[in-house]
Structure formats: C-alpha cells, structure tokens
Amino acid sequence: MWRRVTSVSHLTFAHKSTVNKNACTFKCWESFTTEIPRKEKTTYQRAKTPFITFVLGGPGSGKGTQCMKIVENFGFTHLSAGELLRREIASNSADGIMILNTIKEGKIVPSELTIKLIQKEMELSDNYKFLIDGFPRSEDNRKAFEQIFGAEPDVVLFFDCPEDEMVKRVLNRNQGRVDDNIDTIKKRLKVFTALNLPVVNHYLEKGKLYKINGVGTVDEIYKQVHPVFSSFHFEKQVRV
Ligand SMILES: Nc1ncnc2c1ncn2[C@@H]1O[C@H](COP(=O)(O)OP(=O)(O)OP(=O)(O)O)[C@@H](O)[C@H]1O
Ligand SMILES: O=c1ccn([C@@H]2O[C@H](COP(=O)(O)O)[C@@H](O)[C@H]2O)c(=O)[nH]1
Ligand SMILES: [Mg+2]
After folding, report:
1. How many helices and strands in the chain, by DSSP H and E?
2. DSSP class of residue 5?
3. Quick one: which of 227, 240, 233 has its CA closest to 6?
4. What is the pLDDT of residues 132-191, one digit of tens each?
5. Is the torsion defined by CA of 182, 185, 191, 197 positive or negative?
6. Atom of ligand 2 nearest to the CA of 105
7. Are 24 and 149 in contact, with CB atoms under 8 Å apart?
8. 85-117: per-residue pLDDT in tens?
9. Which of 21, 28, 103, 108 is most solvent-facing, going by the fewest CB within 10 Å?
10. Which residues, 6+ apart, have CB-to-CB distance to 214 below 8 Å?
11. In angstroms, how far apart are the furthest CA atoms of the chain?
C-alpha cells in the first residue's frame, strides 16, 4: 500500500488533455473499487488519475532494459505487453495457443485481449505511474486502448535503433524466447515498420513523442531518458 507525503498534483497533470482526463479517471479508477474488492484503496488513490507512458521501439531496441532503470529511479510499475502475453501462454489459458502462434509469426494479438491483460494489471496495482512497454503496436491497438480507457498516454518514449543492432541484440539475448530467431525477427521487423511506426508518427504529430537514440551503452541511453521524467513533478510516496 502507498500513502501520499506531499502534494504537487496540480503540476503533475497540468499538461493532460482535459477532454479525456475525466473519462479516464472515471473509467479506470472507479472500476478499481468495484471489480477488485480484495484490495482496499484509499480515497486519495481512487481519485488519482493514472500517469501512462507508452514505451515503443523495434524488437531489441532496449525497451525492457530502459524500463527497469525508470522503475528504479521514478517508481513506475512496468507492464510489458509481450511479457503479459507470454504469461498467458504459460498459464495454459484458453487463448494460450492462439497467442503462441501469433508470437511465433511475429504478428499482433487482437487488441481487446492485450488491453484486457494490461487493464487487469493496472487494476491490481496500488501505483498510478505505469510504463506500458511494447504497446500499442498498431493503430488498431492505439485506438482500442484510447477508446476503452478514454485517455491518451501522458508520454510516449520511442527507442530509435538501427535494424542490424536490434537483430544482433535479440540473437544474443538468450532468454529462450520462441521469437528470438532470425526468421521471426525478420517478420517482427516488417510488422514494426508497417504497423508500429504509424503509431510513433501519430504521437509525434501530437507532440507527445520523446525520440531516444537507442545506440550506445545502457547508461548513455538512460542519460537521454532520465530528463523526460525529471521534468514531471510526481507526488512523493512512501510504502506503509
Ligand atoms: N544499450 C544496449 N547495448 C547493448 N545491449 C543492450 C542494450 N540495451 C539492451 N541490450 C540487450 O539487448 C537485448 C534486448 O534488450 P531488451 O530486451 O531491453 O529489448 P526490447 O526492446 O525489450 O526487446 P523486445 O521488443 O524484443 O522485448 C537484451 O539482451 C539486453 O540486455
Ligand atoms: O501489444 C502487444 C505486445 C506484444 N505482442 C506480441 O508479443 C511479441 C513479443 O513482444 P515483445 O514486446 O517483443 O516482448 C510480439 O512480437 C507480438 O507478437 C502483441 O501481439 N501485442
Ligand atoms: Mg522487451
């Protein structure tokens, strides 16, 4: 459980679209209190608007690696859409086989399914700062998310990395992922260019995109990421 120790929220959300803000507060946080009765929420947490960051970039561009550093430094909750889907496969759920086949082909799982998994994790969390890593992967994903949540992300990070570097990193990753092989990587790169880059461009046009040069050491890259978040005034929280 978290409790607030200081308040600067008027600064935190000052940039947010007013059209979507109320819808988001209502849809997300009201459901937290009705659908998840086993977790007590304070009045303060219920009223809080989530701060959502989408983390985009091609396969192996370093999204997960940089998310770990953002979590350490800014206390975000990291939700990797790919990881949630892999967990769904491992749990032998009804959708598991379909998800596995989609991932092997480097294709995109239906939006509603991925959004359901993300939403469930957000509902279970006491946090209000979320990194949604590897999502949205297509305009369909993006539109479905914005419709279901009634909100746009606050920040979109895009790790820009050349294909040969991404391929090298993925092939060296050694985590036993079914899609970390050259055939699937080629398919993922094609899907990234065709379907994910339009999402990147959408947020560029909206002025929400932070383009990060994904080449360099992990620390060199993080030096570009850190100022993005230190420019926001998050409420300080302590565990109780
Ligand atoms: N700056 C870097 N330089 C060299 N290797 C890196 C760097 N950042 C991450 N890596 C390594 O590259 C691999 C891919 O990184 P990571 O898993 O963070 O990428 P990702 O964008 O999350 O990929 P995916 O979309 O496939 O999940 C990992 O083995 C990671 O340790
Ligand atoms: O929103 C999403 C995220 C992921 N996928 C599928 O999972 C794999 C692996 O994702 P990573 O982000 O690289 O862990 C991806 O290639 C897609 O097949 C998805 O469908 N939708
Ligand atoms: Mg990843």
Report:
1. 13, 7
2. S
3. 233
4. 999 999 999 999 999 999 999 999 999 999 999 999 999 999 999 999 999 999 999 999
5. negative
6. 18
7. yes
8. 999 999 999 999 999 999 999 999 999 999 999
9. 21
10. 57, 61, 62, 159, 160, 161, 165, 221
11. 51
- Ligand-binding annotation for 58, yes or no, is no
Reported confidence tier of residue 236, pLDDT bands at 50, 70, 90: low
Element containing residue 37 per DSSP (H, E): none
Residue 125 has pLDDT above 70, yes or no: yes
- 134 close to ligand 2 (CB < 6 Angstrom): yes
Neighbour count for residue 35 (Cβ, 10 Å): 11
Q: Is the ipTM of this complex over 0.85?
A: yes
Looking at residue 49, its pLDDT comes to 84
Among residues 137, 183, 187, which one has the least CA distance to residue 158?
A: 137
Q: What pLDDT score was predicted for residue 46?
A: 45
Q: Is 120 annotated as a binding residue?
A: no
Per-residue CA distances from 161 to 5, 37, 122, 134 (Å): 39, 43, 29, 15
- In the chain, where the domains are located: 2-230
* Domain 2-230 part of CATH 3.40.50.300: yes
Question: Which residues on adjacent β-strands are paired with residue 55?
Answer: 133, 157
Is 114 touching ligand 2 by the criterion CB < 6 Å? Answer: yes
| The pLDDT of residue 14 is above 60 | no
Give pLDDT tens digits for 212-224.
999 999 999 999 9
Question: Which protein residues are within 6 Å of ligand 1, measured from CB?
Answer: 57, 59-65, 82, 134, 169-170, 173, 216-218, 221
